[in-house]
Amino acid sequence: MFDDGAPIYRQIADQIKAEIMNGSLQPGGKVMSTNQYAAFYQINPATAQKAFRELVDEGVLYKQRGVGMFVADDARDKLAADFRDRFFERVLAPLVREARQAGIPLTDIIDYLRASDGNAGGAVNQTEKGALQ
Amino acid sequence: MTAPANTRLPSRRYALGVGMAGEGVKYFRFWIAAAVLVSFLGPLAISRFNDIELSTWFYTANVAKWFTAFVGGGFVYALVPNMIAAGLTRRELSVSMGVFGAMWSLVLGACAVAGIAIERFYYDAMGWSQGIDADGAIAPIGSWGDTLAFAAVYPLLYLVYFAAGCVIGAASYRWESSGWLLLVPILPIVFSLDNALYDTEPFGPGWMGFLGRYMDEWGRGVVLAGIVLVALVLAAGAHRILIDIPLRSKKA
Amino acid sequence: MSFTVNLRDVTLKYGDADALADVDLTLEAGKIYGLLGRNGAGKTSLLSLIAAFRKPTSGAVLVGGEPVWENAPIVSRVALIREGGDFDDSDTVKATIETGQIRPDFDLDYALKLADKFELSLKKKVRELSRGKRSVLAAVCGLAARAELTMFDEVHLGMDAPTRDAFYKELLAEYMDRQHTVVLSTHLIDEVANYLEEVVIVDRGRILRHEDVETFQGMGATLTGPADAVDAVAAGLDVLAEQRLGATKSVTVSARPDAATRERAANAGIEIGPVGLQDLFIHLTEPGKNGA
C-alpha cells in the first residue's frame, strides 16, 4: 500500500470506498476510528482524519458525536456514479492512449472486450448454477 | 544520579541538592569508612615503633578538603549536561549545588570536629601528644578549648574547597580546552589561606611574616574573613559560569 | 496542554560563523513534525535553541508562548533527546532512567516497561552499552518524559531496523495516547514520512521549506519519455534534476504539473511519476542550488 504517489489520505479514502462497494462495509455500519486506522497502517492520525473528513464531505460517511463514523445509507449509490467516472478516467483513457501509440485499432479492443465479457458472463452463470446445486 | 521522584517544581532544586549530598556520601561510603579506620588504627600500629606526637586526623581532615573540591568539581562537570538535558534550569542546578555544598561541608565538617575531638580523647588515653607540624616545628594543638577551636573552622574550609571545585568543574565544562586553567589562580589563593590558618608549609610562614605577631590577636580573624570572602567570590563565580552555560554539541 | 514553538528572527553564531540566520518558524501544538536537513545544515542548533540547551545570539525563542530560556515550568516539560543521550556514563541504566524523575510528568513505570520491552539491562553501566542500546536508552528516556514537546535528534542512529520500527510504533502509540508536539530529526526520511504531519527542511542555517507532508509528497514529479518531448513539456517548469539514457530523458520538476500539462505530456508519450520525499529532499538541498 501507499506507493502509487497519491497522498496517503486519498488512498485510505479510496480503500474505504472500495470496501463499501464490495460490501465488506455495509450501509449504516461503523467504521474503525482514526486511531485504529493510524495504528493499523502506522500513519499519523491526522492523515487518517483527513481521509474521513473527505468522505464525510462527500456524504459517504457520517459522524455521530461521541460514537464514531458510520457508512451513509445511500453511500453505494453515491459512489457508483463516481466509480464509473473514475473507471473511464483512470482505466480507459490510458488504454485508448496506449493503443493509439501502439497502432492497435480501437475496433480490435472492442472485439476483445466483447469476447471477454461473454466469457465472464458464462463464468458467472456457471458459479450460480454450482451454487444452486 | 538518582533524582528524587517527581518533585514539585518550585522546590525540586532543594530536594535535588539534598539528594546529591546523600548520593555523594553513599557513593564514597567505603572510602570514608576506610579513611576513618586508617586514621584511628594507623597511630596504633606506628606507636609500636615510634612515639606519636602528630595528629593523624589533621591529615585525614586535610585530605578530605581536596576530596571535597574533587566532589564539587566532578558533580558539576557531570551534572551540567545530565540535568539541563533532563529539563532543569541552570539557576536550579546552581541552587541545588549550593545546597549540596552546604550540606556536604556541614556533614564532613561535623565529622572532622568529631574526629579531632575523639582523637584528642583517644590520644590522651594512650598518653600521646596531638600535635601539628607548623613551620618546621611540631607543636601540640593545646588545651581542649584550643582543640575545639582548631576543629571548628573545618566546615568553612570544606565550603571554600567545594566552591573552588565547582568553579573549576563548571569552567572545564564551559571552556573545554582552557577552563581547567582557572586552577592556576584559585589553587594558590585557597591553599595559602588554608596554610595561613595553621601556619603550615608551604604558604603559612609567608603569611606569618606578613601578619607577624598580630596573628595571635586579630590576624586569625583576618584570615578567616578572607576565607569567607573567597568562598563567597568562588560561589558567585561558579553561579556566573553556570547561569548561561551552553550544552556542548555532540561529537559526531 | 501541548506546546507551540515560535522562533522570531533567530540567529545563532559559533564564533563568526552563522549556524542559523534570521530564522522564523512556528510549530503548532500537538503535531508530529519531521525536521530534515543535511549534516551541518543547522538542525541540531535549531533543536538546541528550542530546548534551551543554548541561548540564541539574537532573536526570541518561545515555547508554549513563553520565552524558554531558564523557564523551569517550560523546560521541565520539554525533552530534547540527542543521539547517544546526555548521560553520565558511570551511572547504571536504572539510575539514568531515574534521573528523569526530576521532571514533574516523568512516568517511571512506563520507562521500566519500555526498558523491559527493548531488552535494556537495568544493572548495566551506561558505558557498557552498545551504540544501539545507548540510542534505545535515550529513546526510552524521551518517551517516558511525557513531555509536552518531545524532540528526537537522530536518535535512530545505531538502532537496527527492527528496533527503529518498534521505536516508531511506540512513539505513535504514545502520541495517540497523549497528543503532544513531536519533532523527529532524521536522515531516514522515507522511513518516517507516514508518521509526520508537517515537514520542515533546514538548509545552510535557514528554513528552506515548511509544508504539510502531503504537499511535499505531491510536490514534485518526474517526467520520463522521448528527450525532445520531455524538453518541450519541461520548458516552463522548475527543473530540479535531469538525466538521459539514449533517446530517453527523465527530469525531476519541483511542482506537480497541472491538468493541461499532464494531458499534453501523456499525449506526447511522457510518463509522469511521483518523487519520493527523500529524492525531493536531496534535489532541494543540493549544493550549488540557491534554495527556495
UniProtKB/TrEMBL annotation, chain A:
<dbReference type="GO" id="GO:0003677">
    <property type="term" value="F:DNA binding"/>
</dbReference>
<keyword id="KW-0238">DNA-binding</keyword>
<dbReference type="InterPro" id="IPR036388">
    <property type="entry name" value="WH-like_DNA-bd_sf"/>
</dbReference>
<keyword id="KW-0804">Transcription</keyword>
<protein>
    <submittedName>
        <fullName>DNA-binding transcriptional regulator YhcF, GntR family</fullName>
    </submittedName>
</protein>
<dbReference type="GO" id="GO:0003700">
    <property type="term" value="F:DNA-binding transcription factor activity"/>
</dbReference>
<dbReference type="Pfam" id="PF00392">
    <property type="entry name" value="GntR"/>
</dbReference>
<feature type="domain" description="HTH gntR-type">
    <location>
        <begin position="6"/>
        <end position="74"/>
    </location>
</feature>
<dbReference type="InterPro" id="IPR000524">
    <property type="entry name" value="Tscrpt_reg_HTH_GntR"/>
</dbReference>
<dbReference type="InterPro" id="IPR036390">
    <property type="entry name" value="WH_DNA-bd_sf"/>
</dbReference>
<keyword id="KW-0805">Transcription regulation</keyword>
Automatic annotation (TrEMBL), chain B:
<feature type="transmembrane region" description="Helical">
    <location>
        <begin position="152"/>
        <end position="173"/>
    </location>
</feature>
<feature type="transmembrane region" description="Helical">
    <location>
        <begin position="66"/>
        <end position="85"/>
    </location>
</feature>
<protein>
    <recommendedName>
        <fullName>ABC-2 type transport system permease protein</fullName>
    </recommendedName>
</protein>
<feature type="transmembrane region" description="Helical">
    <location>
        <begin position="97"/>
        <end position="118"/>
    </location>
</feature>
<keyword id="KW-0472">Membrane</keyword>
<keyword id="KW-1133">Transmembrane helix</keyword>
<feature type="transmembrane region" description="Helical">
    <location>
        <begin position="218"/>
        <end position="243"/>
    </location>
</feature>
<feature type="transmembrane region" description="Helical">
    <location>
        <begin position="180"/>
        <end position="198"/>
    </location>
</feature>
<keyword id="KW-0812">Transmembrane</keyword>
<feature type="transmembrane region" description="Helical">
    <location>
        <begin position="27"/>
        <end position="46"/>
    </location>
</feature>
UniProtKB/TrEMBL annotation, chain C:
<dbReference type="InterPro" id="IPR027417">
    <property type="entry name" value="P-loop_NTPase"/>
</dbReference>
<dbReference type="GO" id="GO:0005524">
    <property type="term" value="F:ATP binding"/>
</dbReference>
<dbReference type="InterPro" id="IPR003439">
    <property type="entry name" value="ABC_transporter-like_ATP-bd"/>
</dbReference>
<keyword id="KW-0547">Nucleotide-binding</keyword>
<keyword id="KW-0067">ATP-binding</keyword>
<dbReference type="GO" id="GO:0016887">
    <property type="term" value="F:ATP hydrolysis activity"/>
</dbReference>
<feature type="domain" description="ABC transporter">
    <location>
        <begin position="5"/>
        <end position="229"/>
    </location>
</feature>
<dbReference type="Pfam" id="PF00005">
    <property type="entry name" value="ABC_tran"/>
</dbReference>
<protein>
    <submittedName>
        <fullName>ABC-2 type transport system ATP-binding protein</fullName>
    </submittedName>
</protein>
<dbReference type="InterPro" id="IPR003593">
    <property type="entry name" value="AAA+_ATPase"/>
</dbReference>
